[in-house]
Amino acid sequence: MSRKKQRFKWIIYISVIFAAVIIAAWIIFLDFRVTKQFNGKRWELPARVYARPLELYEGLPLSINRLISELKSLGYRNVSGAKKEGQFCRQEEKITIFTRGFDFTDGHEEPMKVDIIFLNNHIYKLAGTCKEPLDLVRLEPLLIGGFYPLHKEDRLVVRIDQVTPLLTKAIMAIEDKNFYNHHGVSISGIVRAFWINFRSGRIVQGGSTITQQLVKNFYLTNKKSFFRKLNEIIMALLLEVHYEKNEIFEAYLNEIYLGQDGSRSINGVELASRYYFKRPINELDTGQIALIVSMIKGPSYYNPIRHPERCKKRRDYVIDTLAGQGLITKNSADRFKASPLNLNRQAKGSRIRFPAYLDLVRRQLHREYNDKDLRSEGLRIFTNFDPAIQQIAEQSLTITLKRLERKYGKQIADLQAAIVVSRPSSGEIIALIGGKKPGHCGFNRALDAVRPIGSLIKPLIYLNAVSTKKYTLATLLDDSLISIKTKNNEFWEPDNFDGKSHGNVILLQALAHSYNRATARLGLDVGIKGLIATLKRLDVGGKIDSYPSILLGALSLSPLEVNKIYQIFPSIGFKSSPKTIRSVFTSQDRELNRYPLVIKQVASPDAIYLLHFALQEVMKEGSGRSAYHRLPAQLATGGKTGTSNGMRDSWFAGYAGDYLIVVWLGNDDNSKTPLTGSSGALKVWTEIISRFLQYNMIEKIHPVSTPETIEFHWISRKTGLLTNVNCKDAVYIPFVKGTAPSDFTPCEGEVPVKNKRSFTNWIKGIFRD
User: Fold this and answer.
1) Would 268 disulfide with which of 155, 181, 348, 755, CB 3.0-4.6 Å?
2) Closest among 311, 309, 266, 274 to 293, alpha carbons compared
3) What is the mean pLDDT of the chain?
């Protein structure tokens, strides 16, 4: 028996030693895991995409209401006196703003208080705190979206010194009163929670410390088991051994789960603050802080969007707790308990407000960055996106579609839309709409709806014609019936939209009224190959077949490609690739890439000037003239309508000021619509431009510089020859010097001279140097 006892003791000893080794090894493993992840890269941070910053300076055409709208979109609060960051105050034609600091692409700017005085919808004066004049003030750019990790966790990392002390005290008051006094695990907390849960017959209180909560969220899963709980306790103790309390609490502030936005999880107090209240965490008031803290216990159960009453009850409990511990006064508690939740309205919708533009940014970034870097390295991407322009485009589309629905009813029930807004001087894409519901993700028609462009192709044919010097805007074209034998031994017989022939018409009139027969003859004479070559120079169209029908728009392009074509007309023949991104920075504010303006001249300035004049004639007397039912006569615009066969596509591409806007309307299934380019897309374009004027975004008179090689003459519309200013069919048009006709045709009848002089003055006003 003694031998058996001795053997049994040895077995016990060996088992204990073996267990001790196993436990020690497991603790060493857990210790390695704790330190490796906490010391290294703690989180995969999504790339952040920012709009352009609004730059304010004296003389800027900007209405006070537009500035207020911009401030509200950034989450600034309208108060009686701007005393803190993120606040503004209006007094008649003066606005005082307390800006937020921001790391701009050219350096960090501290928060500052600035007075802005307006006069006649312009900024008249900028002054600082001590009334010193300021040259420039910038508002931080709007965060418009991001590219998220595959696990869909999103967060904005914040330091502990960037959060208000009340938030820290509130979290500890509710979640862990003794955080600074325990070593990761609170025995008394566990016992107290066990006793309360036992008396209640259900789990009503947890015993986990803040450190344990961090371990569970940061290292472990939510699966409930004794083994997971044991690991949680060990790892909490190890975490406290290696790291300071403030470092642990800072990680907790950034890790904690606080809700869901679609497939994206809201992690950390900073992101929660911006998501639910549209402002940084250090700008929250007591009631908003209490709401954030109240959600920690159960982000889904106390979701303020889905369960506002339940959330308010929990928030009020947190407020009472703060008052009970003397952190706030009773009067303050009563006031905040009486206030509503005041959530950011956009928190109720999708996380992506501008999916079409973000899609374009993502595609351009993928040329230089892999998907993993975009989703995990916390890149900061600064773009040319203009939220004010986007908002106007969205509102204009919605309003116009409603008007069309009242007129056409079910005929346009499935109508879709796409809009591209750019600055032709630089190629910057500043707004993009991919469907009639702009905030919805899905098929991006601005980039991927490749549809027949109809008459939008015509300006390139006319550009090639006047570039040869064989043709001028006064050259007569034959608009009679035409029949062309194709390679397939079939006959192509284009018809005009009105079904009529118009005899001999000058080139300017043929383009302004979009005559198909005259255009087909011109295109065949100039050459289809020349048209295809011009498209190639503009990086448009891919492989293009050389069929005669291409002359009338049997070429399918996306709205973004159409934007490339029409950019050259207001930019006097210069081309630049569509530009969305300004620069890319790392999460440590190191610049990775800057995207400068790169331009290339692809057409003669003289020829472009003639086409620029012709496209203005389209708007004044041709297929775009209905726009001036709403626009002022002195506004210089240029553009062209397009309608595909069977009225399946309604197009308009036009410009005013430094804005080029391409609009497409049509059905995804390519079925017929009741809309032409004039009755559909042009209506949307006109609504956008009228709103630009309303908000002082375009100067009403936009002078265009006339090249020295250009001269103007009075021409007869009937003969294309020189004529008298008093002739009723006379038109004042530009020529490249040396190309104007030398023959003179007499008047068939006269009109009062003053009318012609009035027209002459209008022309000279637009085309003055």
Assistant:
1) 155
2) 311
3) 88
* Helix runs in 492-604, H state only: 507-512, 516-526, 528-537, 559-567
Residues 6+ apart with CB under 8 A from 630: 686, 687, 690
| Separation CA 759–CA 769 (nearest Å) | 18
- Distance CA(245)–CA(168), nearest Å, equals 12
| DSSP codes, 414-460 | TEEEEEEEEETTTTEEEEEE-SSSTT--S--HHHH--EE-GGGGHHH
User: What average pLDDT score do residues 36-52 get?
Assistant: 84
pLDDT tens-digit readout, 384-395:
999 999 999 999
CA distance 535 to 447: 18
Query: Both ends of the chain: CA-CA distance in Å?
Result: 119
Residue 171, φ and ψ in degrees, nearest 5: -65, -45
- CA torsion sign for 217, 221, 226, 227 is negative
Average pLDDT for 16-31:
81
What positions carry a catalytic annotation?
A: 175, 455
Average pLDDT over residues 382-408: 96
Strand stretches in 590-657, DSSP E: 591-594, 600-601, 637-643, 649-656
Question: What φ, ψ does residue 86 adopt, rounded to 5°?
Answer: 80, 20
714-745 burial, b at 16+ Cβ within 10 Å, e below that, comes to bbbbbbbbbbeebbeebbbbbbbeebbbeeeb
* pLDDT at residue 28 greater than cutoff 90: no
Q: DSSP code of 550? A: G
Instruction: Write out pLDDT tens, residues 587-640.
Output: 888 999 898 888 899 999 999 999 999 999 999 999 999 999 999 998 999 999
Residue 751 has pLDDT above 80, yes or no: no
- Beta strand pairing call for 600-601 and 637-643: unpaired
